[in-house]
Amino acid sequence: MKISIATRKKHTMKEIKIKDAIIGLKGKKQPVFGSVKYQTPLNRNSIFEIKTKERKITVPLHQLKLVVFKLNERSFGFIFKNQAYFDKQDFNEWDKDTKRLASHELQPNF
């Protein structure tokens, strides 16, 4: 299911901050872990600011392979193929897999 997508209608820009995420970037084999900030609605020109413990990275949407984050206590959110999605059905699977990958349980963001 989609969280939000860009349309031709005029939208109010809103800043979204995801405080704890797993981020896959094109050209990098290993994911980075940190926070992500961007403006909605998402579109081809969206810019993402990624903060890790070591550095700050600014990338356009098309440079993201995947962003995985815990949306709330019972669902996960994803940014994939230039759109945002969420999944409630497979929560326990995602929780287990992200905990293993990130070496900690992701914190809910909303």
Give an overview of the whole structure:
- The protein is mostly beta strands.
- 11% of the residues lie in helices and 46% in strands.
- A seven-stranded antiparallel β-sheet has the order 4-3-2-1-5-6-7, covered by helices on one side.
- Strand 5 and strand 6 (75-80) form a beta hairpin.
- It is globular and about 35 Å long.
Question: Helix and strand layout, with pairings?
Answer:
Layout: E1 14-25, E2 32-40, E3 47-51, E4 56-60, E5 64-72, E6 75-80, E7 83-87, H1 91-102
Antiparallel strand pairs: 1-2, 1-5, 2-3, 3-4, 5-6, 6-7
- The number of helices is 1
Q: Using DSSP, what is the number of strands?
A: 7
Return the structural class.
Answer: mainly beta
Low-confidence stretches: 1-8
**Distance linking N and C termini:** 17 Å
The protein's oligomeric status is single chain
Summarize the structure.
This protein is mainly β. 11% of the residues lie in helices and 46% in strands.
Defining traits:
mainly beta; disordered N terminus; single chain
